[in-house]
Write a structure and sequence with these properties.
The chain is an all-alpha fold and about 140 residues long. The chain has 7 helices and 2 strands; from the N terminus they run βααααααβα.
Length: about 140
């Protein structure tokens, strides 16, 4: 299991749209977006300074595969995506098979080993927020 720690530098913004897309998909994969899941995705978008990410034309053209491909040149971005979507999974108190299958599908596409995240929801959320905080990352 990979222990996830925030990188020294914030992730470049070019990865954040894909990560937020995957988070939004995780929230909806079971056919029901729980308000807690939506608030969690929105808090992550706020941390990234991307509150309007759903209106971005790149978001509307995104797919699971495209989002994963956009992350393929950064191990930190792949790990961040898995931390974020596992947080959305954890935020839903009713675990459903579709959600676990989606997480497994994304991890497989990203070709990333299993990750280790805090078991405590608040600590997990704090880690995800640190990973998504890109205020100093510029528009790279």
């Amino acid at each position: 299991m990979n222990e996830i720690t925030p990188p020294d530098q914030p992730l470049p913004r070019k990865y954040l749209n894909s990560i937020l897309y995957l988070a939004d998909r995780m929230a909806a994969v079971d056919g029901n977006v729980d308000p807690k899941e939506r608030r969690t995705v929105n808090a992550l978008a706020d941390a990234a300074g991307m509150q309007d990410f759903r209106e971005d034309s790149r978001y509307r053209l995104m797919s699971d595969l495209r989002a994963c491909e956009a992350l393929e040149d950064s191990a930190d971005a792949k790990a961040a995506a898995l931390v974020v979507i596992s947080l959305i999974l954890k935020a839903d108190l009713e675990y459903k098979d579709e959600e676990h299958e989606y997480f497994g599908k994304i991890r497989k596409i990203l070709e990333h080993p299993p990750i280790s995240v805090p078991t405590d929801l608040q600590q997990h959320k704090e880690l995800a927020l640190k990973l998504m905080d890109a205020r100093d990352a510029g528009s790279a």
